[in-house]
Amino acid sequence: MLDFLKSLFKPVVPSGETAKERLRLVLLSDHLSLAPDVIDSLKRDLMEVISRYVEIDSEHADVTFEHRDREIAMLASIPITGVRERKAPEATVFPSPNDAHAAQELAPQLETVAAPKPKANPAAPPRRRRRKKYAAAAAAAAAAKRTAQEPPQVGNQASAQA
Amino acid sequence: MMRALESPATLLEPLAEPAAARGRAIVITSGKGGVGKTTTTANVGAALAAAGKRVVLVDADIGLRNLDIVLGLESRVKHHLLDVLEEKVSLDEALVRDKRSENLYLLAAAQTREKEDVVTAQMKALIEQLCERFEFVLIDCPAGIEMGFKNAVAGAHHAIVVCTPEVSAVRDADRVVGLLPSAWRPELIINRLRPQLVRKGKMLSVDDVNGILRLPLLGVIADEPGVIVATNKGEPLALDPSSETGAAYRAIAAKLAGENVAAPTVRVPANGSFFSKLGSLFGGRA
Amino acid sequence: MSGRRIVITSGKGGVGKTTTSANVGAALAKRGHRVILVDTDIGLRNLDLVLGVEKRIVFDLVEVVEGRCQVRQALIRDKRFESLSLLPAAQTREKEAVSGPQMVRVIDELAELADYVIIDCPAGIEHGFRNAIAGAREAIVVTTPEVSAIRDADRVVGKLTEAGIPLRLIVNRVRPEMVKSGDMMSVEDVCEILQAELLGAVPEDEEVIDTTNRGEPIVLDSTHRLAEIYDKIARRLAGEIVPFTNLNAPGFIGRLFTLWKAG
After folding, report:
1. What angle do CA C223, C228, C229 make, to 5 degrees?
2. ipTM associated with this complex
3. Predicted pLDDT at B111
4. In a domain, C232, yes or no
5. pLDDT digits (tens, 9 = 90+) for B205-218
6. Is C169 inside any structural domain?
């Protein structure tokens, strides 16, 4: 009877598959811990990229790898101390009714910055739109910028980039 | 790099028997690799914990750790033995609680370091510390008789020798017994016995093996493909009520805990004793 | 021309390094090559037992290294295979008794006397392992299709790659029926996980223990299915392209299942 019941509730995944999956993760984890110089370079590059957009406290920043049940995740804990003064816009951001609201929500987390000057050459071809990991923050920052500026200039700029 | 350059004699000085309240530190060793030390450590530990004892399993196979993966805890290991010895983290931070039992903890080995990195005196101190917190400290010893072995033995009070019924394994076990502190009375587990082969005279019998080793027999466990499946899944057989191998490990755990149970055996259809030439291979212990 | 120097290693103990060394060495010798087997498991020697020559040991590796005898004096000629010899390990010494450079010198000397120097490596990745690979120019990594074995093999593959030693894989103790039922990883799985080229796959066989007990390597019995498999491994080592035995066929003889490049 027990055998019959056991066969009814046989696990769907054969143990060989389970073993393969566990091994894959464990070896990945082993390899990551065996390559400290690679990890160091990764951390440095990551900090460098992030610090192009926001100011960070690199002394208290940490990047670790966490081995979870079904995956290995990279966890970055990077204290942000400010938003960088942008020299040139990196992405086209379409204005949306939510921007002002979003800007208000994010405002306490961003230091107030002086509104940057508009782009030098309005006749320049519009920048191609790029997908951004930090789209929300960028959108909020752009919205904050726009609400700080005089409406006519912003309107022209926005339509030039549309 | 500093290494513990102590002579074998001082390294293997037995510690005084622990006071009643303190735990027992037992090293599980064999000499030969692949006979089932890690499987035994995991299963006996799981069985003891299931019986309500507080147990910690220590993986001393630095560089080639496997106790974590046999227990299915590989994704939970954040810190390891060397981190604790080098005081980078506290013991509590390094101990991994078992998924299934709140009585069972694992102290994993370092994967990317070397056995020579462990200082024997520190290992002894760590095991003593663990004995204050746990009733059983089971130390999974690496294969061989070098530094890894010496460190695993240091700090232990007792040894379980795991041996398979094969000439190489018996020879290595014999060597290992000779290197353990003479005051110890190590117990034997004969693992992976195949009764049909013993009956046909193609495998050493329990008597053949223990005729050489002459140790108190803690148990005999039959070879079973289920062990492979269990390791695939990371679920020790000791927790499977329907497994015979699991039952054998549970009986071994009960014996270790002082219960008056019979040592698990494997019945062989007819008495298959092997060859007498074995005696000449082993001219007594060194 | 100097002989090839191949180390047989695994990381994990008990996966069949020594059995593999003995049988691959014997298979090569059967084909007429001059083979010297070297047991580097100082303190826990077993290659002598597996070959059945344990009673004929006079000198060992450590004594050669310490200059207390000539290499030729320490070599034990196998009585069944004319061109097979063994340099045994010392039993009562420790692995630290030999250094890397000393090992290299011994292997160099042996390579002048044989077509193949097969170095049986101890378990682990410590001093014994480092010594064993010191004199090698190629490696065979032995593993079984089990989680711990593969994890340890992976570590060893890493170390060999660091040392610039090319390697190939032998997957040992395969149980085709368990692979079929999904309870064991397949040979292909193992090669994929380790990202290594397959040299051969050897099925689990209960006869092997018996042959070890008797000191008679299984390749002595030409009719045994494992003898054919080891013979194929020897041929691949020698540079031939040989189809892999289909382990799922009854008796494991004959049918092609994949053609692999050798070399």
Report:
1. 140
2. 0.89
3. 81
4. yes
5. 999 999 999 999 99
6. yes
Q: How many Cβ atoms from other residues are within 10 Å of residue A137's Cβ? A: 18
Place of tokens 């060992």: C60
Q: Is B74's CB within 8 Å of A67's CB?
A: yes
CATH number of the domain encompassing residue B181: 3.40.50.300
Place of tokens 């929300």: A136
Question: A128-132, B69-73, C5-9, C27-31: lowest mean pLDDT where?
Answer: A128-132
Q: B267 with C182: CB under 8 angstroms?
A: no
- pLDDT of residue B161 exceeding 70: yes
* A134 or C192, higher pLDDT: C192
Q: What are phi and psi of C205, to 5 degrees?
A: -150, 125
Considering only CB atoms, C126 lies closest to which of B116, B229, B280, namely B116
Q: Which two tokens stand for residue B66?
A: 């496997």
| Structural domain total, chain C | 1
Instruction: Please check whether residue B72 touches C, CB under 8 A.
Output: no
Contact (Cβ atoms closer than 8 angstroms) between residue C63 and residue C90: yes
Contact A144, A107 (CB under 8 A): yes
Instruction: Check CB contact under 8 Å for A19 and C147.
Output: yes
Q: How many CB atoms are closer than 10 A to CB A151?
A: 9
Total domain count, chain B: 1
CB contact under 8 A, C148 and B231: yes
Short-list C258, C256, C151, C247, CA closest to C197: C258
Nearest CA to CA, how far is A114 from chain C (Å)? 53
Q: Residue A111 CB: number of other CB atoms within 10 A?
A: 11
Determine which of B61, B112, B114, B235 to mutate to test the interface with A (most A C-beta atoms within 10 Å): B112
Is residue C108 assigned to a domain?
yes
Residue with tokens 């492979």: B228
B172, pLDDT greater than 60? yes
* pLDDT at residue number A67: 80
Q: What does chain C come to in residues?
A: 263
CA distance B217 to B187: 6
* DSSP single-letter state for residue A67: E
Region of residue B190 (left: phi > 0; alpha: psi -120 to 50; beta: else): beta
**Residue C263 located in a structural domain:** no
Domain that includes residue B168, residue range: 20-281
CA distance C16 to C171: 10
> Whole-angstrom Cα distance, residue C29 to residue C242?
18
Longest CA span, chain C: 55
Beta partners for C203?
A: C174
Residue type at B266?
Answer: V
Q: How far apart are alpha carbons B165 and B36 in whole angstroms?
A: 12
pLDDT of residue C112: 97
User: Each residue of C132-158: pLDDT tens digit?
Assistant: 999 999 999 999 999 999 999 999 999
- Per-residue pLDDT tens for C76-110? 999 999 999 999 999 888 888 999 999 999 999 99
**What is the rounded CA–CA span in Å between residue C27 and residue C240?**
14
CB neighbours of C253 closer than 8 A, spacing ≥ 6? C225, C228, C245
| Cα–Cα distance for residue pair C111/A25, rounded to 1 Å | 41
